[in-house]
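Q: My labmate handed me this sequence with no annotations at all. I'd like to see what the chain might look like in three dimensions before we decide whether it's worth expressing. Could you predict it?
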Amino acid sequence: MVKPFCDRLTVSSPTSHNAALLDVCSEFAVQLDAKPEGPKGRWLLPEGGTFFYQSRGRFAALEASGRALSALRAATLFGDYLGALGALPHRVTRLDATLDVAKPAAPFLRDLYRKGVKGQIRLSRKPVDGTEVVQYLGAPLYPGGMDTGTVYVPMRRFGSKRQYLTAYDKRQERLSKGYPDPGDLLRIEASAARDKGATLADAWDPEPLFYDIVSPDVLDKPAGVPVWVPAVETWTGGGYKPSEPRRRLEWALEGSLGAELLRLASYPGGLTDLQLWLDSVHRGRVLAGVSL
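A: Here is what I predict for the chain of 292 residues:
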């Protein structure tokens, strides 16, 4: 059975961790052969995906596009990426959970819009305001179909909601960009905004979050899908260490243990004692799980 996947992820962190968040961006961008583009903090992958870092006021944010996340999964780096983000104080401020369904999109879009404008769709406890549901349709680029396109429930311009839903004809989009015809393909994107309470665990497995948003008014939830629980960070996908030795040491020293080591090293003879300790750890791994 086809399952939802994370198709966009934005994480915010206090500006006191600017350097570490920017390091996460550049570290994984480089591993995927991405190149810096435009302003500092934007990286473009060969296949077109992007990482984008920006700092505003008291917070900085790192966004990974759908193609960037797909590249991370293909390179088996997605868990490491989430682990790197999870090592920092953070908040998931946007998470798009996406499901592709091999079925004609146009009839689904028509029914979705009709229900939406009548106020018959709930993405939370309150029905979506029908005046905020918008559709953009046009003639299909493939034979035998009705007008097709995209339906927004609701449009993002209508303010800060906890969740949004976008459904569109993925076949139409692919053909419009000159790609081969994939056949009938409907894409449904359930987007959790900053107040929804999504976590990095939801990025790893977005299925419960996806159906919490779309069920029951848009899609029925399959049997066996767990109930989604907000704001409970359960990511345990493993730790993260930058590939460059110098950055690996700096990353380790950013934690509470690192702060204590620096304090001890400031005493007379402390640097020598610290070097001896590090040498013993390196030779004998005397502290389980510690490696440099």
